[in-house]
Amino acid sequence: MTARKASANHKNQIFEQARQLIRLQGYHHTSIADIAKGCGLSKASIYHHISEKKDLIKIALQSVKAFFKENCFDLIYDKQLPDQKKIDLLFDTLEQYLKEYHGGCLVHNLVHELADSQPEFRDLFQDYFSMWLEGITHILQKAHPDETARTLAEDTVAQLSGAIMMDRLYDTNRYVQRVRTVLVARVLQRETLIVA
Amino acid sequence: MTARKASANHKNQIFEQARQLIRLQGYHHTSIADIAKGCGLSKASIYHHISEKKDLIKIALQSVKAFFKENCFDLIYDKQLPDQKKIDLLFDTLEQYLKEYHGGCLVHNLVHELADSQPEFRDLFQDYFSMWLEGITHILQKAHPDETARTLAEDTVAQLSGAIMMDRLYDTNRYVQRVRTVLVARVLQRETLIVA
Amino acid sequence: MTARKASANHKNQIFEQARQLIRLQGYHHTSIADIAKGCGLSKASIYHHISEKKDLIKIALQSVKAFFKENCFDLIYDKQLPDQKKIDLLFDTLEQYLKEYHGGCLVHNLVHELADSQPEFRDLFQDYFSMWLEGITHILQKAHPDETARTLAEDTVAQLSGAIMMDRLYDTNRYVQRVRTVLVARVLQRETLIVA
Amino acid sequence: MTARKASANHKNQIFEQARQLIRLQGYHHTSIADIAKGCGLSKASIYHHISEKKDLIKIALQSVKAFFKENCFDLIYDKQLPDQKKIDLLFDTLEQYLKEYHGGCLVHNLVHELADSQPEFRDLFQDYFSMWLEGITHILQKAHPDETARTLAEDTVAQLSGAIMMDRLYDTNRYVQRVRTVLVARVLQRETLIVA
DNA sequence: TATGAATGAGTTTTCATTCAT
DNA sequence: AATGAATGAAAACTCATTCAT
């Protein structure tokens, strides 16, 4: 049991290191040696848990998706939950995620780095953003007709993506805060001049 | 003269190749050899025009900034020009830039790839976005008080950044179109439910 | 008993896989992992049956030697058996061996790959060819004086070795067939003696 | 000029080292590092002259083929040259080649090592042996009808291939000498024809 | 300017082998 | 006997950079 745990820990450590380093440095600028060093393992050991470096991308993307799925999107479709609470859930989780490590969101970073040169990951990226688009569309559907809700969700997701980048660049959190404010206003249909 | 022109051409060719390749593949995934091959030059020749690879980042960023400065932001502060024309100028230039090559905007790609690992470029990135923020704030100042204009400009720039990424990922241009629509509405103070 | 059998089976499986893979891919190009995968075992398990990779060479060579010893050379010295039958025995066994898997004869392949870099196996190789040389010399001794018989046997073994290679390269069996034809002729003395 | 010569020398040194080491150790057991060390160059420098390791196989095979073509097969079709001289030319060249370095003939070694795992080189191997087969057939055509000449040439080439291996294994040259003797006898028709 | 050649350091990946379980 | 995990060493190959010509 100790052994099983220990080995599982190494596996998780590797994936966790990969996640962090790729988020901070990008995929191509993160070497297997970096990850190994970060785990106190040898390079060769890494290949006991993956079969090629690209596997780490998949695993990292899936883990970020799972994080938001479990913490937000699995809860958001609950009819009982008031819209405000849903938005809080979303943004509180996001803020926790962004605060935990610096370097913005791994998914956004990777989209820019890999979207064209590694088309095989497109589906994973689209999956991720579909989850956000559908979740936010759902939240907006009480206040708006379907098509409007979808369009506003797209605006929101775009703004959120850019906001994460801007916050990273200017080392603030005001851009993401604004997305929250705007989304709340949209739910409350108080959209005219949304300034806090 | 022929020689001077030829060398200037090589210089431009190199910078142009760098711009394109870095935009498509990212900085770390683009090698000096790639750029040299793309220009029909040898690797060593590249170093007659730059002193290290990083120079290419600077040059590329400056050229994108110059492109938008000359084509938009130098014209936008003209009191004669109606707001609608200014917005058209902005988005037409942007669309032209995005259409010219695929791969989204070089600046956004690089922000994500380099923001943390190469802090020396932060200023350049911030410069670039300041230009956009100030330009759009200016456009919004006729319709809104200063602080509101600034806030809405930040929303707009964030949304635009995310929109470029989303359009790249889904191979459309609808996200950026929406930013234009929303900005027009904001200028016209018709913000309630902005759906085309 | 079940256990003993099972392990013996694994042992044989490993040696059989090694034989096949080394014959096809060469010694250095066949990894312990390849052999393990071919047996459905783990790499570590291989080391319960050998102490280092080189052991597999020895075992493979011995098994090929044993195959021809049991099927030909143990029977060939029987005074009762007519020469023609002996030759049939030899070449039928050889053809069966060559047909069973492609990739020529393991021994010949290994001689070329290892002869100089691993002098420790020289004796094994020489043993193997001595068996052939003596066997064929014996067959020729009825029709020729001892020294002539030996010389013709050497010619035959050389031609046979080259024929196996040529057949492999051109994917035929005509070269080996010719060796059989020539040997029969030599036994029947239907060939003016070519001896210096 | 000095520079051109120097660089050409490095290139030749690399190919020469590759030829020698591959002949002695086999392709898979010869590393780029081995070759680099043998030339006093860095590993990276090797890649200035080849684009992948496999290139060395091609170059080595071509150089051996060129050696025998220039020294034998370009001369052998001369009607003036007596058959005995042609055979001398062939075997003197071969002996020189075999003596120059130990380790038998590079082509034979590679056939065994690569024939199946690297089918892309089959053509090169076949080319090489075709040169020999046609040359020896030509020599035998004065003394024998075409088809017989061809068959005897095939016997001769097979025997020669095996003889090179046997000589290497037993560190003699008697096996190859026998091939010369037998071929002379065949040209002089001092051998009852062995054709099926 | 331009380039062929060279290279140290680094990249991903493989390998034979060991060992605790 | 079997194996998952680990690893030092080495494999092939790449890269940014330098320099003599």
Textual characterization of the structure:
Four copies of one chain form a homotetramer. Chain A has 196 residues and is an all-alpha fold. The first copy, chain A, has two domains: 1-51, Arc Repressor Mutant, subunit A (Orthogonal Bundle); 57-196, Orthogonal Bundle (Tetracycline Repressor, domain 2), CATH 1.10.357.10. The first copy, chain A, has nine helices and no strands. In chain A, α5 runs antiparallel to α9 (174-187) and α7 (122-140) crosses α8 (146-170). Chain A is elongated, with a radius of gyration of 19 Å. The termini of chain A are far apart. The relative contact order of chain A is 0.10. The model of chain A has no long low-confidence stretch (mean pLDDT 91). Chains in contact: A-B, C-D. Chains C and D meet through α6, α7, α8 and α9 of C and α6, α7, α8 and α9 of D.
Essential attributes:
homotetramer; Tetracycline Repressor, domain 2; 196 residues; elongated; 72% helix; 9 helices; 2 domains; DNA-binding
Furnish the topology, listing elements before pairings:
Four copies of one chain form a homotetramer.
Chain A: H1 2-25, H2 32-39, H3 43-46, H4 54-73, H5 83-100, H6 106-114, H7 122-140, H8 146-170, H9 174-187
Helix pairs in contact in A: 1-2, 1-4, 1-6, 4-5, 4-7, 5-9, 7-8, 8-9
Chain A binds a DNA duplex (21 and 21 nucleotides) through residues 3, 6-7, 10, 31-33, 41-45, 47-49, 52-53.
Discrete helix count of chain A: 9
Overall radius of gyration of chain A: 19 Å
Q: Major β-sheet of chain A, in short?
A: none
**Could you name the CATH topology of the largest domain in chain A?**
Tetracycline Repressor, domain 2
Q: Can you tell me the CATH superfamily of the largest domain in chain A? A: Tetracycline Repressor, domain 2
On the 0 to 100 scale, the average pLDDT of chain A is: 91
Any idea of the CATH class of the largest domain in chain A? Mainly Alpha
The portion of residues forming beta strands of chain A comes to under 5%
